[in-house]
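Worked example 3 (structure in, sequence out).
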């Protein structure tokens, strides 16, 4: 339930938002009270599409650093605020542009597909970007080309299996999603006969193999609305459960494990959103030389 203190903060945020001509883009893993102030709530792909479309002067990104960077890559003329400058993504930190350049030298003919969960410097070294919602389509669009997929080995493995092809996989992973074990899914399915299990493609293959559907967070939101099944086991960061329950009051959502929490996603609070709008800080701005090279990879993805 929203507290009185939250209501007061929300009122101040909404009034400042208007004054600054700002838009609030909020990821599905954010705290419930932050989800409540969203102009747009969604997955990485939906939010980057919104960032590309917006006419606001200021984008407040309630998510993690790479998401705000992507918004800045698309909108060099706008102010992009990330209410906590330390809200990073531990997977994105598992590859550097230097290490990728070295790999590219070893495989000069390969195309680099980078998961959007990567830094702008890594995007600048990549041919095309993807998110969990479009990764299969993006790799498919490259035909027979040899592919280096960075940095998520598990999303990469999922795509390679779907397309029945080989790819060179960077050994990165999401520390939150690897907390979900296949036993969690199997245990909850046994406890709830007739339920269906959804897993994010960042989960290990052992988990995606026992899940009924493998979906991005936006895909989970759509699936939950459409399905006639009443009990859904959710194999992703547990912040999404708030939205699932709110939009589907007649259905039951069970987290595969309560340990699947992304500490960085939880760094954004209402207070920090308010301070960001008051001070117009912390801003995320990608240096122009990197931005121009990263823009190609993001733009090619949005085109597909
Ligand atoms: P989605 O694009 O599915 O929302 O995932 C983003 C993310 O960071 C998952 O950990
Ligand atoms: Fe990064 Fe994992 Fe957090 Fe998503 S859940 S932002 S991949 S650390």
């Amino acid at each position: 339930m929203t507290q009185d203190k939250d209501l007061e903060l929300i009122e101040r945020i909404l009034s400042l938002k208007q004054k600054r001509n700002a838009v609030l883009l909020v990821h599905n893993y954010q705290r419930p009270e932050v989800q409540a102030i969203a102009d747009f709530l969604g997955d990485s792909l939906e939010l980057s599409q919104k960032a590309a479309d917006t006419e606001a002067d200021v984008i407040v990104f309630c998510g993690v650093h790479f998401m705000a960077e992507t918004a800045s890559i698309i909108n060099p003329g706008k102010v992009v605020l990330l209410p906590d400058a330390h809200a990073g993504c531990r997977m994105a930190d598992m590859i550097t542009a230097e290490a990728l350049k070295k790999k590219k030298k070893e495989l000069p003919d390969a195309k680099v597909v980078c998961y959007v969960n990567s830094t702008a410097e890594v995007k600048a070294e990549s041919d095309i970007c993807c998110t969990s919602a479009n990764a299969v389509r993006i790799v498919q669009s490259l035909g027979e080309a040899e592919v280096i997929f960075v940095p998520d080995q598990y999303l990469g493995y999922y795509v390679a299996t779907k397309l029945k092809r080989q790819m060179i996989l960077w050994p990165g992973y999401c520390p939150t999603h690897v907390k979900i074990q296949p036993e969690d899914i199997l245990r909850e399915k046994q406890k709830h006969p007739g339920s269906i299990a959804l897993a994010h493609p960042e989960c290990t293959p052992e988990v995606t193999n026992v899940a009924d559907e493998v979906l991005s967070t936006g895909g989970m939101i759509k699936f939950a609305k459409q399905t006639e099944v009443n009990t859904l086991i959710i194999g992703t960061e547990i912040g999404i459960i708030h939205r699932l329950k709110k939009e589907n009051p007649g259905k039951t959502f069970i987290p595969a494990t309560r340990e699947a929490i992304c500490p960085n996603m939880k760094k954004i609070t209402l207070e920090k959103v308010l301070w960001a709008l008051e001070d117009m800080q912390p801003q995320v701005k990608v240096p122009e030389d990197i931005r121009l090279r990263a823009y190609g990879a993001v733009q090619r993805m949005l085109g597909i």
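Notes: The mean pLDDT is 97. The chain has three domains: 2-88+265-285, 92-174, 177-255.
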